[in-house]
Every structure is written in structure tokens, then in C-alpha cells.
Amino acid sequence: MQDLDIYDLPDLVDRNKRLLGLDPGTKTIGVAVSDRDFKVASPIKTIKRSKFKADAQELKEICADKNIGGIVMGLPVNMDGSEGPRCQSVRTLAENLKNIAGFEIPIVFWDERMSTSAVERFLIGEADMTRKRRAEVVDKAAAAYILQGALDAIQRQNNNTY
Question: What is the mean pLDDT of residues 2-14?
Fold first, then answer.
């Protein structure tokens, strides 16, 4: 699967559709959704991973329910910019969504370095959440953080083209 550029995404997504942000981990997938103008990301849920078929079905249902036209998937790049086994796992998930589950919408990757730790710091410092409550929200919040980063980049690109 050839990587799409995040800046091409608005041209590939039908008008009035939204973007889905995913933070795929080994045990969970954090899920967030954008507004139709691609300006604001909101966390919506955390999927507890099970078999691929069940996970893909849940993502398909979310895509249909939320009118999704594209997916921004967090890519856990190493701090030095290299890609390790976790990146390969995320890339395989994206390929399987396309090739096995039949997803026909574009999927792009967004560098998620430090997203979970940034969200954790916020939840501890600003939101003063307990460890149990943080565990319940950190994955979907990280998905929103990843998606918001991509949305901000798209907005900056759009502002520079006019």
C-alpha cells in the first residue's frame, strides 16, 4: 500500500464527510472523529482489540454511523525517525483494512511520536484524573490528539495556498 500524503486527503474525501482518527495499540484502538470542516477532532471511543474481523467490523460500523470519508492512522515512529516493529504492525492493520475488510476510503499515516505521553501529562496535570479514569480515556484522547495534529497541518497548508 503506497502512503498517501496528508495534504492530499481533503481532495480525496467527499464533501460533508468526516475523518476518523485511529491510535492503534496492541490491546486497544483509540478512535476520534473530525467535524465536516476538518478543523476539530473529538474522541469517541476505545475499542478493545480482539480478532481482526471483529475489530474491522466495529470500525466499519463507526465509519457508516459517523459518515467517514477517510482515516488518519497514528504511526508510532521511533524518536530518531526510524520505523520499528510497531510501525509495521500499524501498516499491516491499514493494509488488512483495505485488502481483507474491503475499506475503500483513503487511509493516511500521521507521526504520533509522543502523543500518548502528551495526553497522559495533560490528564495528570491539567485534568487531575485518577489512574483508573486516565486508563479509560487515554487511547481515545490520543486518537483525537493525532487527528487534531493532522487537521492542523491541513489547515496550515490551506492557509498557505491562498
Answer: 86
